[in-house]
Amino acid sequence: MNKNQFTLFIYILFISYNVLGQVISKESTTLKKTEKTIFTDKVITFENDNKSEEVIINIKEQTPTLELKIKGTISYGELKVKVIDPKGKVRKKFSIKAKGPNKNETTIGEINKILKKPASGKWIIKISIIKGTGTIEINANFGNYYINAPNSFTPNGDGENDIFNLDTSNISEIIYFKIFDRKGDLSFSSTSIHKGWDGKVKNELQSSGTYFYTVEARTISGKKVTKTGWVYLIN
Hints:
Helix content: under 10%
Shape: elongated
Number of domains: 2
Number of helices: 0
CATH architecture of the largest domain: Sandwich
Structural class: mainly beta
Order of helices and strands: EEEEEEEEEEEEEEEEEEE
């Protein structure tokens, strides 16, 4: 490799999405929920200085968080990485600028930033080499999951804490959400991530007491997870 040639290695790990299309140059990559894909290495070679390349990520559906990690090294030069959101705004907190001494290697380090509820649409990662050679790795992934539930609720119609709902993050699907009374009879069943129990069975409010719930769900990485517990109905 001559001193004016720059090879860029891009490794993007999408734990939770199906990747369609290419991820080099100006091709678009569509991310679709519920399917698990591990994306392989791509290599881009810059033949001359002052060149740029773009990786376009098209988020088809809104995802709870978008995390970008940038790390690598460069020699004798300057490298810039920036992220442009669907409205064309540059997210400066994702931008990095590394300038190394003459013919010395400089470590960029690791940039780890998280955006909560990023907008759907085309996100552009733009990589520019001003002068030099080196490698860089970019990882994009989507945070950890959780399923939380309150330990009590009061379905008395006052508009506060009337519904027993699940609080989730990075869950793509509720396979089942079931609630049973102490006799083992089914009181509630749902497969919706947004539907909770109002304390009623056949439109009749149930007695105060403890009820057992069980949840099976699928994370955005495709993994099946479960949660069980007790909730106290107060009326």
